Amino acid sequence: MKRATRKRVLVLFAAICCAAFIVIGVEAAIDVLTHDRGTSQATLNAREMVARANVRLQRASTSLRTLVASGVGSCRPGDIEAMRRAVYTTTPVKEVALVDGAGAVLCSHHGFGSDHKAMTAEQTVADSGITVSMVRFGESQEPALRLRHPVAQHYLAALVPAEIFEADDFIPPAQGLGVRLFLAGIPSVLHDPGEPVGPRDVRVVVSSSQFPISVEIVRTMGGLKAEGGTLVQYTRAGGFVVCALVIALALSTTRPREDPVGELRAAIAAGEIVPFYQPVMDIAAGRLIGCEVLVRWRKPTGEVVSPGAFVPLAESSGLIFELTLALMRAARDEVADVYALRPQLKLGFNIHAEHFDNDRIVKDIQEIFGHSAIQLSQLMLEVTERAPLADLAAARRSIAALQALGARVAIDDVGTGHSGLNYLLKLGVDAIKIDKMFVDAIGTERYSNAIIDTLAELGRTMRIDVIAEGVESFEQVEYLREHGIHMAQGYVFAPALPGQAYIDLVEAMCHDSPEADALKMVRNRTPLPRYISARNRQIG
Prior knowledge:
Blueprint: H1 2-69, H2 77-89, E1 95-99, E2 105-108, E3 116-118, E4 123-125, E5 130-137, E6 142-151, E7 154-161, E8 177-183, E9 186-191, E10 202-207, E11 213-219, H3 221-227, H4 229-252, H5 260-269, E12 273-282, E13 287-298, E14 304-305, H6 311-317, H7 320-340, E15 346-351, H8 360-369, E16 379-383, H9 392-405, E17 408-414, H10 421-427, E18 431-434, H11 436-440, H12 446-462, E19 465-468, H13 474-482, E20 487-488, H14 499-509, H15 514-524
Protein name: cyclic-guanylate-specific phosphodiesterase
Organism: Blastochloris tepida
Subcellular location: Cell membrane
């Protein structure tokens, strides 16, 4: 016993050490990825700012040369009017003025002078006759680039505020972001990072090839991590999940494995079997019409197990009955409030073939939903294809009893497994569901198109609903809609959603009253043929 305990302690200690290295590695990876991502984004932003500056300064230069060429060089009313027109027609230019050799403003397009406080010496723009300097102007003393062109004994000057070089969709005021515009080595601070800049932070400088300007962008690591908080959290969460798995794996090697059937039975009793909801849409009217309830196993660790890992075990062990009832109760309790207000919504459940061997399923449905806010007419029970129906006559009696309660019954995955036209002929169901295999092949396999068209026509002839499963593209939606199939589910609309997410979707899409929804359906499309319950049809 002591030796086994010592072994468990050593294995656990080793696992904890391994987990610690993983955490350290994850944090280091986060720093590297954050720095690289920040550098790439800052470089892209700086290049965009420089490109924008080149275009706008070139536009201002052209405007100055045009004024000089037209003889504007005094404070006469006609010249001031020409200056005013230049400002109005040249977007980045905020002011055009006539200045003397010392830089004093003689007059401007306003008709009067304003102070220009020089920040740098004049820098020559190659082959243009224009010089550029950085000044502050106006009462707020905001920074601007001033372009000057000689005219007679004076200069025509155009002011372009520094702040307009930023992109409209740039990220300020992001945390830890600094932006400076340089001319002649003198910076104009457009955005202060708001915190000290260290050697590990991102610093990018890009210079213009046309004008003597450059842009510097600084991103602090703290700001980058705050901005990418979700990514950082998910990365850390992934690291912690890996650590937890390492520790769990280490512990599992030191203790005997539990009986899987017993573990599943305990999970059902503990309420770990939870419903997820796959929305079903009316693709003709763009409305939510209900959902198919899918099962998940949410373990105490937070791990969510997909049905393929435990449903076959439940079926082979006979626990499928307890599991299905637990799933129904959980779904009933979770969505009862929103479904009570929206009686048009459907709630679908997969029912194993053995449920139909006797009337047990009928009694279970009455017991679970008989006194629930969810009406029996809102239920859709789907006969799965994983096992054949042993007694079609008994199954038909159970289905008819369910339909008498108001519930509807569908055949799932038509065209695969054990289900087929024999089921359609003898069971008297209300709907069929086209398997994802055929939907995936739309547009690629001609026989799949023919099968879907045949099933759509079969549904119209037999007056039963046809629902397409596994729809994953808008092209598939369009094909189904054009061929008369108006109900579908799949990832193109939404994946299987946990309870609160599905409730939020219902409240967002089904806020109108049923009467209003019915009116919209009448206005938006031609209604489908009136549904006739399978129990009222004559089937040979």
